[in-house]
Amino acid sequence: LPFDATQSPGYELVYTVQTLCFLMASLYYTSINTLFITFIIHVAAQFQILVQSLKCLDDHPHDEYFINCIKHHQTIIKFSKELDLVLSPLLFFFFCCS
């Protein structure tokens, strides 16, 4: 270092910068994990909505309702695959770094 980090005010400066960097990294890590959890909860909620729609299938004798349920299921699966494609490398990276 270009200055003595063990003497004042260098020590305080280095300590403050390290503390701020740690807080920013913690905030970033927490935000990313929260976003991942939110995506996963969203997929689970979509499956619960689909289950409720299928329970009401007897109330709607038309084929179009069943077709909409199938399309909803396909959309959920497509979103899940895209989510897996995006999150898997990131989660692997976070796992390796922790």
From TrEMBL:
It is found in: Cell membrane. Coiled coil: none annotated. One of its GO terms (biological process) is signal transduction. GO terms for cellular component: plasma membrane. It is a multi-pass membrane protein. The chain crosses the membrane at residues 20-45. Its main location: membrane. GO terms for molecular function: odorant binding; olfactory receptor activity. Keywords: Cell membrane, Membrane, Olfaction, Receptor, Sensory transduction, Transducer, Transmembrane, Transmembrane helix. This is Chemosensory protein. It comes from Blattella germanica (German cockroach).
